[in-house]
Amino acid sequence: MWVPSSVDRLIRALKKLPGIGTRTAERLVFFLLRNPSIIQELAQSLDQAAKELRFCSICHGITDTDPCPICQDPGRATGVLAVVERPQDVFLFEKLGIFRGRYHVLGGVLSPVDGIGPDQLFLRDLPERVQREQIQEVILALNPTVEGDATAQYIHDLLKDSGVKVTRIARGLPAGSDISLTDVTTLKEALLGRSEWE
Fold it and tell me: For domain 76-196, which CATH number applies: 3.10.150.10, 3.40.1360.10, 1.10.760.10, 3.40.50.2300?
């Protein structure tokens, strides 16, 4: 079947996005072709994002300034650090509006099967950050999966001699779930019901 090469390239590019299969990619392409103003807006937004967005040198979250506004905010609680897997987890916690501390984004979780060890994550700078910023509590806000639990245990062991209190969000989240798919109330209860790591 003949398809213009630019359409085929666009379909293949969209299929690389999570949750987008061939049929969805085709529907998106033909929707965009019928709406050229959206193509322009999308192209400009992607170009701007590629030029301006980066990872914060302190927390490793996504930002357009470095350090990010959260790390620069003197009104944030400086003694509490929430460790999360991905930058989008920061956005979710910020949407809740109940956490006023700072964040440390790992960039994933330990997964030997996928070749992800401590060196592939932002783990090495965590102990020195805890010392430098005089953190009193580290909240492990990781997904309740096997990999999330293994990463939480690794962090607990990494920080056990630092004197910092290590807590984890409560298990109001179902095991094996993804924080980003959780409703706001469940996540709020999990955060408020956190317990000390044992």
Answer: 3.40.1360.10
pLDDT digits (tens, 9 = 90+) for 164-181: 999 988 766 666 777 787
What are the start-end ranges of the H helices in the chain?
A: 5-15, 22-34, 36-52, 69-72, 87-96, 126-132, 146-159, 184-192
How many helices (H) and strands (E) are present in the chain, helices listed first?
8, 7
Radius of gyration of the chain (CA): 20
| Coil vs helix vs strand at 80 | strand
The sign of the CA dihedral 160, 163, 164, 167 is: positive
Q: Would you state the pLDDT for residue 172?
A: 64
pTM passes above 0.70? yes
Fold of 5-52: Helicase, Ruva Protein; domain 3 (1.10.8)
